[in-house]
Amino acid sequence: MTSPTPFDNEIERNRQRAARGSVNATNDLAMALRDRHRLTGDPADLLEGIARLRTAIGYTRNHPVKYTLRVSLSALLLDHFQHFGDVCALHEALAGCDKALPLLAGENRLTAAMVRVDALVLLAERTRDPEYAAEAVESASRLPRTPGVQLVLGKALRMRYELTYDRGALVDAAEVLEEGVRATAVDDPNYLLVLNQLGNVLQCSAEDTGDESVRETAIRHLRAAVARTPSASQALLHRKVDLAAALRVRGRQTGDVAALREGVVLLREVLAATRAGTRPWGNRCENYLIAVLELVERTGDIELLDQAVEVGRSAHGQGSDDATIPLLLGLLHHQRFLRTRLRRDLAQAITAFTEVVRTIPYGERNHVAALGNQGRVWFSEYGFSGDPEALRRAVTALGSAVRASAPGTVGRGQTQINYGDALYAQYELSLDPGVLTSAGHAFREAVEIEALPPMARIRAARAWARTKAETGQWREARDAYACAVGLLPLVVPRRLARVDQQRALAELNGLAADAAASALWADAPETAVRLLELGRGVLGGQVLQSRSDLSRLHAVAPELAERLDDAFDRLIPSGHLMGAAADERHDLDVRLSHLLDEVRALPGFADFLAPPGLAELLASAAAGPVVLINVSRYRSDALIVQPSGITPVQLPDVTPDSVADQAAALGAALAASTRPGAGETDAQTTVTGILGWLWDFVAEPVLKRLGHTTTPSDSWPRVWWSPVGQLALLPIHAAGHYPDSATVLDRVVSSYTPTLRALRHAKARRTRADGDLVVVAIGDAPGAKTLRSVEREATHIAALTSATRLDGAQATVDAVRAALPSHGSAHFACHGVSDPDDPSASHLLLHDGPLSVLDLSALDLSGVRLAVLSACETSLGAHWIPDESLHLVSAFQLAGYPQVVGTLWQVNDLVARQVAVDLHEGIAAGEDAAMALHHAVRRCRERFHKSPTLWAAHLHSGR
């Protein structure tokens, strides 16, 4: 039994009047049946309305009312086309309007003209003939600007853009529809139609230009249209599809996985509410498959991919044309091949794209897309089999797709990147410099298309730089790499969930190192330092920027400063958000960008919150040299930064592979060291060898250049280490040959800093003079191994100074967070857990749960001095994103602690207590934290000189 609708009574009333011979009632009945069809999706109403109008037109052959009936029939035929896809219905609708228009006047004539424009727009969309779109625009432009006319004119202008890429048409469409929204009452039936269409046009404009503020406005309009549409209306399904499309583009442009997931959820709802086998179902399947592809590219969700393949197979032949579903199936199979390496998926993708290319005329949208994807799958075939013929086919197809693509468009840019990749592979086979030059040109053109997603532009810039480095054009390579590094902030906007930011930066691992190496080959060490600063610690840099002193701005523009403060406070690192909360965060990030532009337009504020200049970076090394150790496939160097300048020290024996080998050996040895017996002894021998390697090839050349060649007799010099890439996973501070004195520990006091900016920020922090200490001790955290030395450690340390203790059940997350701001120093004796898959989830295990890196990044503590993390792996970052220094030590620094003591790996409970107590005794005796830790570790080394895993993990970070 069907549910009642608002149109039932009207339909019944007009049905009775029509039975008594009323032609007007027949017309009203047909239109009411159309309205009910739009609400319920039942084609029976639509077919009945069309049949009744045809009959009425036959009865009124010589009566003027037949022209009104013809227009009504044309209106219903447009819905018939939308439901069944029969293009003959469009031609009949257009012909009916053409016949009726000359004989109508007033409102009837205006209605006929609007129906005619709608028919032309649908014909343009179906046939891809721009002449229909041009005629639609011309016809609508002659009509009075009522809300209904503004709606059809906006649709016509948008269609002209889609077929001609005339950006002026898109601008005009937005203006017309914005005027329509303003002129239409919210309760007017046309309001949601105009609002939704405006959202679609703005989304199209944002996709064309890359303007984020326009995209966020579009999503806001589309979400409002969805929220205000009755749940029983078929229009709600259309509007959900439109909103899902906008969310998909947001996800593609920004990397927001939550937006992609929300779009897939919306489209699942739409498919579940759509009758299978109908044309709307086919169209909605297309949208669903596109959304799934975008999401799977980010997440690799094979189960979702498998489900989508089945949906695509069931939708074959049900789409808006004969090519789209096969094209999407090809993409799904190719994506599955990339994830599973199953040859049959690659073969199915090749077959699908070859068939579409064969059947669709050259130059049409789907033909160009199929050509480009055919080239991609042939390139995958080459990568899988090494067949040169597959590479030749890839280059041919991709070159054809580039030539058939409109210049400056997103599609052209992405195809150029794929074409460049294939050309570079061809160069590697042939060593033809002309091919390499062509690859570089392809990548460079893609970089210059600003509407491309930032990640795509960075990939293109990085590949362009590689083509220059290949031929030793180091200045050009440096400039291309600088372009890529400069785009990094756009890849990780603040609005993104931290896990999405991490995923994006992991894909770009090593970019800063290669950029710096290119600058060094170009004899520009200053540029190398700046590129390392911009390309590493990007997420930490965002936090540091938001913690910057705004007092100068407060003095000049207090209201603007308050708005900026508020935006920073609300954009602290977060997890995934969806729906209106996500919209608000995206909109706020866009507004923050505009606020910064507004501030930088003020006199004297042009460089407001910009990355520090070279002079400021050099000043960071006033207390001692900072050594940036850069490891790249091009070359490796230590860059000694001092106030007087930058001194490069080449490290010829250090390569990415050799560092990775040492990191892997250290990981294996640390795992073996926990098992008593011969394995533990061998592990200590391995670690000793790694420390020797670090000394020979990394630390000793640097210390020799600095003149630190013997053990100091009085004051100890300090050195800050800032290693790049996986070298950050190794204990440079403990490098040396033991038991000889040729060791870092016997030459200098070592500290670490993720970047020069972080050290500069730490040195600028004001600290309180009091010695207040909070000691957090959890020896028996639920579900974790008991730490038996924690109680003695906490008692001994608390006795050295004025201390507040939070022990066991007292040490809850809320209690600790409340205690930190009111104590100058903090000591944690508890479990530390490093999460290799999500480093922002690494945490200290408190009584009632974790205190994570992400939680700590949201804190902004003032006046604090020192945090001691007497726990495991608190300075261990993730192997796949080492340049971001995402670990507990850096999180405490970002929270405000200018000095933090932590560990690189799991530490023995008893030894950790000895080092911690020794450290605090040194501090109580007046030593600086770095010096106190240095002496504590040296004393521990004397006790366990044959077991470096017990003492080499402890390190100091900060000023």
UniProtKB/TrEMBL annotation:
Pfam families xref list: CHAT
InterPro entries named among the record's database cross-references: CHAT_dom, TPR-like_helical_dom_sf
Location of the CHAT domain: 691-958
Name of the protein in its database record: CHAT domain-containing protein
